[in-house]
Amino acid sequence: MKKMKFLSVFMISAMLLGGCAQSEPQTKEPDQTPGSTEETEAVSGSETEEARTTETPDVTGDGVSLTVGTFNIDAKSQPDIAAQSKLMADNNVEILGIQEVDNNTIRNNYNMAETFASEPYTDYFYTNAIGFQGGEYGIATISQFEIKESDSTELFSAEFKGKELADELKEAYMNNNPEDQATVDALDAVSEKGPIEPRCFQRVLIEKEGKQIAFYNTHLSWEDQTLRAQQMETLVKALDEDSCEYKIIVGDFNVDQATEEFDIFTENYSISNGKDGEWLDTYTGEDDFMKVFSVDNVIVSNNITINSVRMLDNTLSDHNPMVVELSLN
Predict the structure, then answer these.
(1) What pLDDT, on the 0 to 100 scale, is given for residue 29?
(2) Contacts of 32 (CB under 8 A, 6+ apart)
(3) Element (H, E) at 64
(4) DSSP, residue by residue, 242-307
(5) Which residue from 49, 52, 148, 296 has the highest number of Cβ atoms inside 10 Å of its Cβ?
(6) 8 Å CB contact between 114 and 33
């Protein structure tokens, strides 16, 4: 979550979230890509760390086990992607959604999703939200399983304040170069008008032990609570209409005003963050606008048992990732 108000251009650069140009699932090749451990450490100065965990009480469920996660990786900080991937792998996460993902931008000049999808992860699906610094910015699903189907859907957001302003933002983001003051000033000027970034959600289909799972990933708007409620209604409708037996949605929902914003899901689905009234503050930054910090969540259909919920305290991002152990009944 980035609750930075449109003040300085470079801070705005970091705030990009996800709209949806469609992409095809991309299988990770074994050869090394830019942003490997050595290169990433040189950029970020981070080291892989042993994360502390915050847990909710365990429940034992029968059925096929599946460990899922969600992690806003904080692209603006030029994070250590190799360390982030290892953190999730070390905690046995089999599939996860990541948000704030750069693809060959000035600040992160490599494919972050591909780099994250290193061993034991073998497949990934990236969706571009908006062009940024000559590259792309969006969300991605990272998986140990073959992604059998994939698609992306735009959420109403970018034109919430009109198409003209949305187009101005799109141009300013794409042209932004921190070393070119004219482009910095141009983005500042657009930011003063209070635009809203485009958002989307992804859906992939995976299979484990004969069980097919529809896995969704999203990153919702922080700028307007009414807009965010509309986006949640769209997500619930998509889940309700999905014919797949097992459904999971993860992401940074940017629910920063009241935990009750998640209530829309609780009639037909189960929430992990907020399970049994236990809320985990997954956003670790400072923001006077925010009233609650439990912005990330893993939400599942009611035929899935939530066995345990963990939050990994870390210094690799301004979000603590969630790790949730499930049983597909």
Answers:
(1) 46
(2) none
(3) strand 64-72
(4) ---SEEEEEEE----S-GGGGGGGTTTEEESTTGGG-----B-S--TT-S----EEEEEETTEEEE
(5) 296
(6) yes
CA dihedral 6→133→123→51, nearest 10 degrees, is -50
Residue 25: cis peptide before it, omega within 30 degrees of 0: no
Taking Cα atoms as reference points, which of 90, 59, 57, 141 lies closest to residue 327? 59
131/96 Cα distance (integer angstroms): 23
Alpha helices per DSSP H over the chain: 9-14, 37-44, 81-90, 112-116, 163-175, 181-191, 225-241
Distance CA 310, CA 93 (A): 11
Phi, psi for residue 248 in degrees, rounded to 5:
-135, 135
The dihedrals phi and psi of 266, each to the nearest 5 degrees, come to -80, -10
Taking CA atoms, 170 is separated from 14, 145, 166, in Å, by 14, 34, 6
In terms of Cβ atoms closer than 10 Å to its own Cβ (0-12, 13-18, 19+), residue 124 is: buried
Q: What is the pLDDT of residues 155-174, one digit of tens each?
A: 988 889 999 999 999 999 99
The single residue listed with the structure tokens 């599939």 is 95
CA distance to 63, 93, 300, 326, per residue, from 59 (Å): 13, 18, 15, 10
Tens digit of pLDDT for each residue in 289-309? Answer: 999 999 999 999 999 999 999
Q: Extract the tokens encoding 267.
A: 């009639």
